[in-house]
Design brief:
Layout lengths: L2 H20 L2 H15 L4 H7 L15 E4 L2 E4 L3 H25 L4
Antiparallel strand pairs: 1-2
Helix pairs in contact: 1-2, 1-4, 2-3, 3-4
């Protein structure tokens, strides 16, 4: 397993923890699947992660820190910081996966 792949695994682990903290189940499950594939040195984990990006309803569109109360959307305390962290991790994961794909890091 290459250095970039190991770094990507760590970023995905951070994403899983962040998504869990906010109760986001769909993308958490997606990232757990990605994580498991990467840990098994299965290159399809790179493709799986990259498929999460782009298009309507994609991982790019996710906003954390929203709740519902009395039928109305409200923002949870700290939602700005939560989304800043999500954006940083989401960008880093894309950059690493794209680099691995372009450079065929398989070791």
């Amino acid at each position: 397993m290459g250095v970039k792949t190991q770094e990507l695994i760590e970023v995905v682990e951070s994403l899983i923890a962040l998504l869990d903290e906010d109760g986001e189940m769909h993308w958490k499950a997606w990232m757990i699947n990605t994580h498991d594939l990467l840990l098994a040195s299965d290159y399809s984990g790179i493709e799986h992660l990259l498929r999460a990006y782009g298009g309507m309803g994609s991982f790019n569109d996710l906003i954390l820190g929203q709740g519902f109360e009395n039928g109305a959307v409200h923002w949870k305390s700290g939602h700005e910081k939560l989304n800043e962290r999500l954006d940083a991790l989401r960008s880093k994961a894309w950059e690493l996966a794209d680099w691995i794909k372009r450079n065929h890091e398989t070791e």
